[in-house]
Amino acid sequence: MAPPSPRLVVPIDVKKKAWEQNHPLHNRWHPHIPPVSEVEEGELFRVEMMDWTGGTIEDNNSALDIKNLDLTIAHCLSGPIRVLDKEGVPAKPGDLLSVEICDLGPLPGDEWGYTATFDRENGGGFLTDHFPSATKAIWYFEGIYAYSPQIPGVRFPGLTHPGLIGTAPSLELLHIWNERESNLAKIDPSSLKLCEVVHQRPLASPPTARNCLLGKITEGTPEWERIANEAARTIPGRENGGNCDIKNLSRGSKIYLPVFVEGANLSTGDMHFSQGDGEVSFCGAIEMSGFLELKCEIIRGGMKEYLTPMGPTALHVNPIFEIGPVEPRFSEWLVFEGISVDEGGRQHFLDATVAYKRAVLNAIDYISKFGYSKEQVYLLLSCCPLRGSHLRYRRRSQRRGHHRYTHRHFRPGYSTKINGIVQGTKDC
Which Gene Ontology MF annotations are present (predicted)? Predict the structure, then answer.
């Protein structure tokens, strides 16, 4: 007998705001955010998601919505979902939750997405010192392919994946996060070597009640006020998984997530039609609404058996990601190398960030010779499924970190010229 169709456990109406959904969304991590649904291990279930901003970004030629976006809205997540075994016993702290991605894609009737760069004064990004203004490209989907009116002449197969998936933290783990991140936020950015070569922005984002969504918890109640002021933001990845942005986490992949609370309380969101390694423009995937069809397994005692703590407590662990077999097949590649020397010619010691930045800038400069603006190329490199990887360290009188950034299609002799960029996407 054929297996039953996936059970829809979190439906989304894209015509409604995030806080208007029948299964209310959340955009913070906290153990006391109640589950909105319950699944049994081995059951195939479907989760629908809004884009990470909760529908704030519009399908148009203006980047004003990106420029003025209030980043405290990030990320609008579907869940939490409580996971039980076949006997009805919930996942327990110390277990490992295996989550298999069986299928995924854009929501029917909402087959579009966007890639953007934030304004220097509102979030910035990896190359903000070179691209300080907000930009946006809209993408439309045709099956596995994406194309953009703002970057004409380009059409590529995406590698769809969730940018964010994780379990709820325990109170103890939440307090660890808040303490270490608040300590980081107090540091003067000018004292850090990294801030010499990338745009300075807040080093960490402590809890804030602004734009806080806590699922079923009613805003304005004492419970809401307490949780909103201690719940963790969703921007960084942490021990619970979270904002991992792994471009190959597509069909057939499995995520092994540590369980910190009873039921695991699985949440997911930030769907991407496609993304390049590093998501270098920061809002740099093709962001979209979408769905996941998932299947879970509880591995009892799996945290201790399979995960090694990398810190002072048993909670300092990280998930394991098993990448599936699905990937676009390309046969021609260009490789752009970056070394640990900044734009001013200063040598850095084994600085992977400087090397990666140089590799991306080399790729942007080269591809812009084929009729594209550098703003267009920056957005393209951030969202198409290219590879960005550490290659090697060389031992010489001055050590240099090397990175490679690989792209296909724009080889010497390629003669197509693309003129212009749609008004409003370069600057606002």
Answer: hydrolase activity, acting on carbon-nitrogen (but not peptide) bonds, in linear amides
Domain limits of the chain? Answer: 7-322, 334-407
Question: Count of residues for the chain?
Answer: 428
* Residue 132: count of CB within 10 angstroms of its CB: 16
Kindly report whether the peptide bond that precedes residue 3 is cis, defined as omega within 30 degrees of 0: no
* Token pair 């010619």: residue: 345
Question: Residue 227: left (phi > 0), alpha (psi -120 to 50), or beta?
Answer: alpha
ω into 407 cis (within 30 of 0): no
Cα distances (angstroms) measured from residue 271 to each of 75, 156, 201, 308: 10, 18, 25, 29
SS3 state at 73: helix
How many C-beta atoms lie closer than 10 Å to residue 105's C-beta? Answer: 19
Cα 73 to Cα 230: distance, rounded to the nearest angstrom: 16
- The conformation of residue 186, written as its DSSP 8-state character, comes to T
- The phi and psi torsions of 115 (rounded to 5 degrees) equal -125, 145
Question: Based on the number of CB atoms within 10 Å of its own CB, is 72 exposed (0-12), middle (13-18) or buried (19 or more)?
Answer: middle
Q: What is the DSSP letter of 3?
A: P
Strand-pair partners of 44 = 295
pTM here is 0.91
Q: Give the other-Cβ count within 10 Å of 133's Cβ.
A: 17
Q: Return the ∠ at Cα 381 (arms to 378 and 387), rounded to 5°.
A: 150
Which 8-state DSSP code applies to residue 231? P
Among residues 227, 230, 232, 207, which one has the least CA distance to residue 217?
227
CA 276 remoteness from chain centre? 11
Count the Cβ atoms, other than its own, within 10 Å of residue 413: 4
End-to-end CA separation in angstroms for the chain: 57
Residue 337's DSSP bridge partners are: 404
Residues in CB range of 147: below 8 A, 6 or more apart: 139, 140, 154, 155
DSSP tally for the chain: helices H, then strands E: 6, 20
| Tens digits of residue pLDDT in 175-222 | 999 999 999 999 988 888 777 778 767 788 899 999 999 999 999 999
The CATH number fitting domain 7-322, selected from 2.60.120.580, 2.60.40.10, 2.40.128.600, 3.40.50.300 = 2.60.120.580
In this predicted model, what pLDDT tens digit does every residue of 213-242 receive, in sequence order?
A: 999 999 999 999 999 999 999 999 999 999
